[in-house]
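Inputs:
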Amino acid sequence: MGALTFMRRGALVQIEKFAPDTMLLDYLRLTEKSKGTKEGCNEGDCGACTVVLGTPHNGGVRYQAVNACILMLGQIHGKELITVDDLARDGILHPVQQAMVDAHASQCGFCTPGFVMSLFSLAHEKRNVDRADVVDQIAGNLCRCTGYRPIIDAGLATCNSVDDHWSRRQGETCKTLTSIEGDLFAGDDASFFAAPASAEKLAELCAQYPAATILSGGTDVGLWITKQMREQAQIIYTGRATDFSAIEDRGTYISIGAGATHTDALEVLKGLSPDLGELLRRFGSRHVRASGTIGGNIANGSPIGDMPPALIALGAILHLRHGSAMRSLKLEDFFIAYGKQDRKPGELVWRIDVPKPAPNQVFKCFKISKRFDDDISAVMGAFLFTVEDSKIVAARIAFGGMAATPKRALKTEAALIGKTLDEALSVVLDDYAPIADMRASAEYRVAIGNALLRKALLEAAGAHDVRVLQP
Amino acid sequence: MKTVGKAIAHDSADLHVTGSAIYIDDMREPEGTVHVAPGYAKEGARGKIISCDLSAVRAVAGVIAVFTAKDIPHKNDCSPNAGDDPILADGTIEFHGQVIFAVVAETRDAARRATRLAKIEIAAEPPIVSVRDSKTNMLPPYAFKKGDIKKSVAHKIVSELTIGGQEHFYLEGQVSFAFPQEHGGMMVYSSTQHPAEIQHCVAAMLGVPDAKVTCECRRMGGAFGGKESQAAQWAALAALAAHKTGRPAKCRLDRDDDMMMTGKRHDFYVEYEAGYDATARITTVDVNFAARCGYSADLSNAICDRAMFHADNAYYYPAYHIATQRLKTNTVSNTAFRGFGGPQGILFAEAMMQSIAIQIGIDALDVRKRNLYSPRRDVTPYGQKVRDNVLPELIAQLEKSSSYKKRRKEIDAFNKSSRFLKKGLALIPVKFGISFTFTQMNQAGALVHVYADGSVHLNHGGTEMGQGLYVKVAQVVAETFSIALDQVAITATTTGKVPNTSPTAASSGTDLNGMAARNAALVIKDRMAEHAASLWKVKKSSIIFENGVVKAGRKSMSFAALAKATKEARISLSSTGFYATPGIHWDRATGTGNPFFYFACGAACSEVLIDTMTGEMKVTRVDILHDVGRSLNPAIDMGQIEGGFVQGMGWLTTEELVYSADGKLRTHAPSTYKIPCASDVPEDFRVALFKGDGNKFDTIYRSKAVGEPPLNLPVSVWCAVMDAVASVKPGVVPKLDAPATPEAILRAVQSL
């Protein structure tokens, strides 16, 4: 129970004592002294620190690329850790590495280890890889030298045919990893890293240690440590509790465990709406989506966080749990003010129920940002129109980036009722007084809010020519 | 054994992909290494430092020392020449983020943590934040002038243009590692484009002769101009800590600190008025460039000069007034960035061409062709004659290969029928002057040893930042000796082997260092040939070096055997080599001369799709034809062209530096500052090298410099956006700023 355990280079590594807020990248570079993995930004936005984590999955292993800079060491408990230093074997480059050399895909080389690991994970994660897959896989890897074309070529050349050391020993690896059982509690009451293996235990621990930091993906909490230098003495990690991340289709709605990663949620939610699928695909990068969770994104209360406005428009219900007590509320009611959510210390965002749009409903959502991929929205708008006899009979509209919290446009919704989609085009968005920041001016936000409302109405009416197709 | 001209992989490619290339932070730290972190005032961008309480900083566990300006033994300056960049601010600060103190600690984490605890009070004065607000000259204004620009013209365009700056975002941040030496010396490993300047800065800071300090750099994880002058401060701080503690000291900046504390590409505000005749030929140009220098001079003079040198791009101006204001702001001092002012000049020229075309209602490519340099219209605004003008032919080829005319028609038709989405197309030329305009910098040195086993040690003054300089120069040396490339050992740039070097900048790395290394190799080759001739009793002129073998008639021996024989005959197998670019001169006082050895040219045709409701934009196709002369290494050159294009595209589209009114940079991390990612690169991206006769001027194997010129090609993307926006209301010139972010594009649409 006390030792952090993970698999590294074929063997299990056990660490008895570590500071709970040790970052994986620091462990690699400073403790293990593996220098292949680089620090580019220390905030999960450049991918130079990309490593691959293996998780047992259906008797095999699922390999995913993540950012080591904002991942805490404790998060790799029960996983296999692969870094760029490991890939070449007996002096022979891994096929992904060889493809990168052949395509002249490195110049300064500093981002290269990250790209190699990112492509390595893609090669293991997916078959029939096309250009869009490669581009999506490396959206969170920045290269300032090459212009990406040769890297994309290397990915296409190699990601479809990987038969390597890791694919061959998947069964064995899975067995080793599943042998790491039970809860982890490393440390003492004052300072610990806990990774309970069940949702029940998770809820219990959170109630027991209300001052502890609840860590899910770490894509936000990681920056408290690396940038704000805030020490985290007590950490409860949700990611080991597999039943905390279950996603279930319950007929009229989809129930998402708060610990579900964006990667897993994407697979289900894209079936609910292509727009929602694309919104999730543009959420962070694949690295971030593999770590970050739906519940974490809600719990941190970002005024921009792309999922809350979409889920609010869809009418999502949020379930919270404190110890054994459960309560539910409309998602929009969870966000009280900037940085203030309706969550008590020790209380967990537990589950989100997302209603499926009915046949008489149209759901649209749009994200506007300076860069298409891996960028935080200037404005994000989500719209659910219920149309009967050509008239809007109900509307739910929510925006991110327009107020201090994700917020519904109640006045605008009311103004739409009773209008045809065509008549509704005259309605002006009248609910927000946005601010200017580094992402957009207030005027632009107002203009975009109205443009997105218009787009949603036009598309609801059947238009197909109102948006630039995303990459 | 031809190595020159082959698509050979980067010398470190295998190291890059395995993570085993050693960057400075990857060097094994000797026992006792200390770490340095810079500290600044949380609030305040300009004013006197009233109080600086560092007691809480000193109290942090692991902190060894905290230094301020008074701890600097000798010269508190890390500027390239003006003497106005204190290593640690002394008494006042002039921008938010200016370094006031440095923490030395047992761990980097402790040092960083400690910096946050400083209590510093600034008697804050209102900072000058934007270039439009500045009325203070950082440096004297300067202009090129000829003819009567006030004469009456048939038609005129009056406009303005805001051009944003750019953060380098090298993936490896600034880093230096200093090791104290005997007798007060210092060994500094620095991620720098300019080891000689690091050496000089550290020596001056310590108060020791330059010869006491050595600076070495094996490779940088990207630089792009951002490590030409900007690496010095961190080297100085590492050296200061090493000097004071007697322990090896490393200073590696956190990304946010790096972005706040180091200079960027200059942003400009440009106002212009140009006259043209009925055939769209320019008659007069009156342009004023107002540049943000930031708080100190840095390299701003040369950068603003280069903006002027490129305000013509590829076009002949019969009468002109090309003026620059070099303005002071209370923001970080702007610095070199790939293109060095040239891109801003070129963007102006192309914005003007695009605007004239929109105003008249004709195809912008016709306006461009009409104004290209041509016989008798071939003298630039700085008096240099354009003698190697490949552009008319190059443009004709690209126009054809990109199906420009056909697509122009298709796009016009699309725009007529599309309500909200509009397409744009633009084909633009680029002409870029090659040479440092400060003539004395056009020199380089090399050191070559041949060992008795025939292997070769190569060293030169150029630095490797990913651009492939090391492999290109190694190819030159292998070619000179006619030996295999793997016989040439590439070694780290160090001031200990080649002294008094220029920075690796101005695209000049290969031109200068390739020649210097070749000259060194030729000296040794000549000695070896002479010895072979004496052994075989033949004329030296009959000795041939070929594929690792040296022969004359029927006599032959391996290169290695001859090396051994030469050594045994007590003949030196080591030589320096030197090169100074011939035929260049520049008289800044009169604004005349021949500052550039030659021009590197190219052209690009870009197509974009914009959404007039939101301003979103996607680049859908790019065709490039670029002249690298006779390529030394086509794979490396293609990488420079594609990479330069995407970097320039970022500057003109997604990359936006935002300052708050109190002078704080708001975009100091990749979460808020967006360089292009893979999905921003068009799937349809066609890049080709121009097949010409090679460089008309005597460069290394008739190649052409390739570092900076391609960065200008994405001006075509910006012009294509103009084209798309203008389709909304033909005949009206949109007010489009750079970068063309969604917000800027929407503003341009609304300006119609």
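Chain A touches chain B through 86 residues (CB under 8 Å). Flag for discussion at group meeting.
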